[in-house]
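User: I'm writing a short report section on ligand binding and want a predicted complex to refer to. Could you take this sequence and FE2/S2 (inorganic) cluster and write out the structure as tokens? A short remark afterwards would be nice.
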Amino acid sequence: MKRLQSYGAPGITVTFDPSVCIHSAVCLRTLPAVFDVRQRRWVRPEAATVDQVAAAVDLCPSGALRYTRETPAVPVEGAEEPQPGATIELSRNGPLLLQGTFRVLDEDGVVIPTAGRAALCRCGGTGNQPFCDGTHKAVGFHSRRDPVG
Ligand code: SF4
Ligand code: FES
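Assistant: Sure. The structure tokens for the complex follow:
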């Protein structure tokens, strides 16, 4: 398990768990001023507003990125309430993306913490079962196979 990284700025702290990052680059595309792997300190929350950083982190499909606000966000009138239940999306040539209210249990029935988002490996190659660690690209996993026969 790789070490959890933490990046603080006034109003918000972003954490990054490299062991479950699926290398989708959503964060890099969404907010390049904050997420830039060319920089040694690759997450710089101070480079955008707290709301912008929070919104970008919310798009991380694996849950590798998370944040804690110093003060809770004020609910926006008319904003959509999170729906109960969970969505499972089969990403193309990649993991199962879970989002919503769900629990992941190990073989002994012990809950594995996920907090609303997770990317589960379906190529079989991950080094961090049951989570995707990006290995599907290295092993050339294709989710669509030609029918046999
Ligand atoms: S999984 Fe999350 S942290 Fe990893 S590259 Fe994608 S958006 Fe960024
Ligand atoms: S699906 Fe990503 S490592 Fe298996």
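A remark for your report: Residues 21-27, 60-62, 64-65 surround iron/sulfur cluster (ligand 1) (CB under 6 Å). The mean pLDDT is 91.
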